[in-house]
């Protein structure tokens, strides 16, 4: 091989090194991401039924529960199955602040406010029992279609009893010290 041919080959090899290094890093990142998934298991049926009843009592919305696919329902790193909660109603006399008090009816559960979130017309709360059991609930309320479209939600004059309320959530068990992520 002459000197000119070797000179041309070396720059090509050097250009390929960063591409190979990037490919290796991206591959390792994909493996790390795949390993960050946590497998959830549903809580016992009686516990899920009690949680749904408490949610119904506190919100005024009939809440059903089924066991279903956990991820990514509310958390980005949860797979497996969980108790899923859902319900929709109009004519509710409650307000969104009652959701924050749902823990009053949950013996043994502690609120984990690091996972709470509030926004216009919605709120969500998370409770833990011990190091393994999780219960998250989101409640949202929207005025009837076509009402309050041109005003901020806080300025809407339509009575809350006419709004549509939606309750959704999930309850599951994780390995000790595992934490869900949004």
Can you walk through the features of this model?
This protein is α+β, with helices and mostly antiparallel strands and 182 residues long. The protein is built from three helices and eight strands. It has helices spanning 3-35, 45-59, 97-100; strands at 38-40, 64-69, 78-90, 110-111, 117-119, 122-129, 133-142, 164-173. The longest helix is centred in the N-terminal third of the chain and has 33 residues, at 3-35. The protein is elongated and about 45 Å long.
Mean pLDDT, all residues: 79
Distance between the termini: 58 Å
The main sheet comes to:
8 strands, mixed
Instruction: Spell the H/E element sequence.
Output: HEHEEHEEEEE
Structural class: alpha+beta
What would you say about this model in short?
The N and C termini lie far apart (58 Å). It contains three helices and eight strands; from the N terminus they run H-E-H-E-E-H-E-E-E-E-E.
Features:
single chain, 182 residues, 3 helices, 29% helix
Per-chain topology:
Elements: H1 3-35, E1 38-40, H2 45-59, E2 64-69, E3 78-90, H3 97-100, E4 110-111, E5 117-119, E6 122-129, E7 133-142, E8 164-173
Parallel strand pairs: 1-3
Antiparallel strand pairs: 2-3, 3-8, 4-6, 5-6, 6-7, 7-8
């Amino acid at each position: 091989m002459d000197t000119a041919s070797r000179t041309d080959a070396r720059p090509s090899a050097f250009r390929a090194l960063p591409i190979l290094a990037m490919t290796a890093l991206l591959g390792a990142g994909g493996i790390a991401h795949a390993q960050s998934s946590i497998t959830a298991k549903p809580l016992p049926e009686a516990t899920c039924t009690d949680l749904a009843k408490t949610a119904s009592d506190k919100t005024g919305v009939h809440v059903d529960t089924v066991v279903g696919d956990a991820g990514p329902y509310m958390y980005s790193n949860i797979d497996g199955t969980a108790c899923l909660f859902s319900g929709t109603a109009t004519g509710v006399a409650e307000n969104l602040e009652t959701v924050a008090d749902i823990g009053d009816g949950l013996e043994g559960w502690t609120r984990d406010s690091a996972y709470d979130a509030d926004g216009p017309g919605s709120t969500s709360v998370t409770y833990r029992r011990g190091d393994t059991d999780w219960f998250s609930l989101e409640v949202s309320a929207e005025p009837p279609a076509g009402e309050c479209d041109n005003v901020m939600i806080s300025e809407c004059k339509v009575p809350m009893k006419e709004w549509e309320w939606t309750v959704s959530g999930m309850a599951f068990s994780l390995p000790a010290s595992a934490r869900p992520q949004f």
